[in-house]
Structures are given as structure tokens and as C-alpha cells.
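Repro:
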Amino acid sequence: MREAGTEVMEPSIFGLAAPAIVALAMIVVIVILLWKKVPGAIGRSLDDKIAAIRASLDEAEALRGDAEALKAEYEAKAKASAVDAAAMVERAHHEAEAIVAKAKADAESLIERRRKMAEDKIAAEERSAIAELRATTARAAASATARLIAERHDAGSDKALVDQAISALGRR
């Protein structure tokens, strides 16, 4: 508390009160900032950063579009490969059935010829003809089997089986 009759002196410099000095100092700082063009430099810096961010966003958008196009292309290729693989398997089944039918027909005609020959020969020759017929049938079956395996398991069908296995893994 102040006593009555005492006067308090406000601080001053060159006859200016403290709030006036602070205001004058602020004006000087603001004038120096404007003189050195600090707000323009800050604006340019921010504009440069905005331009860099926009460029990055544009590049990211372009990359996303490219990725989506690649994805669509590979999905179409995968679907086409699955259809091709199914067609190859179907063709292989038909070819195998045709080969088996032909082998059966060939084996039946061979058996018929051998049986007629065996009836005309004596009993000793009959046993020999049957042994020969069995050997021929085994060779024909082995040959037909070898042809069937060679036709069903060439490089193309192996590729189809690999592609089919890969596409089956992709669906899991």
C-alpha cells in the first residue's frame, strides 16, 4: 500500500514512458522485417513447398493409375490362362480317349488274327502263339502307354499344369 503523499515515478527514457518505448521497438523490428522482405521469403518458401507437395501427389496419382492398369492386365492374362489350361486339359482327355479306343481296336483285331492262326496249328504251336501274342500285346500296350505319356506330358502340357497350379495357388 502506498502512503498518502508519496508520488511514484514511472520509468522513462528520453522522456518517453515504458509502453511507448516497447511500441517504438516493435515498430522498428517490423520495419526491419519488411525492409529485409522476410514475409515475401516466407511466402516463397511456402509456395515452393506447396508446389513440391502437388508434384508428389501428381506423381503418386500417375503411379497409382499405372499400377491399376498393370493389375487389370495381369488379371485378364490370368483369366485367359485359366481358360487356355482348361481347353488344353479337355483336348488331352479327348486325345487320350481316342488313343485308348484305337489301342483297344488294334488289340482286338490282333487277338482275333492270332486266335485263327492258333486254331490251325498243333497244340505245341498253340502255346507258342499265345506266348507271342502276350509279348506283342505287352509291347503294344507299352508303346501305346509311351505314346500316351509322350503326348500328354510334352513341354506345353507341363507348362499348362504349372500355370494351372500357379493359378490355383493365386485363388487361395
